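Let us work through a complete example step by step.
Step 1: write down the sequence.
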Amino acid sequence: MDHVTFVPTPEQFAFTFGGAEPVMRIRPSTVLTLWTEDAYGGRITSASDVASAALDTEDLNPQTGPFWIEGAEPGDTLAVHLVDLTPARTWGASTLIPFFGGLTS
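Step 2: predict the structure and record it as tokens.
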């Protein structure tokens, strides 16, 4: 079984759901160790940082991937098993944005 570690550069983050080019091609059953960034792109580093000031809607919620799975075809069901999920920090941040997200007006 292959094991690949992928730490994306800022240029490799995707900011859309779909349509991004694959960052890597992997074989089925490959174990991935991935790194990603928080929704603010790492711009909040302390309690004194204001989430609304750190928020940039041009690069909101950076995502790691997508990955091209060799042999997979449109319509195939792919299984992903999360073995471990380790937060990068001991704290988190959240914000409410008018007309956006789970609590829209």
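Step 3: interpret the result. The helical segments are 51-54.
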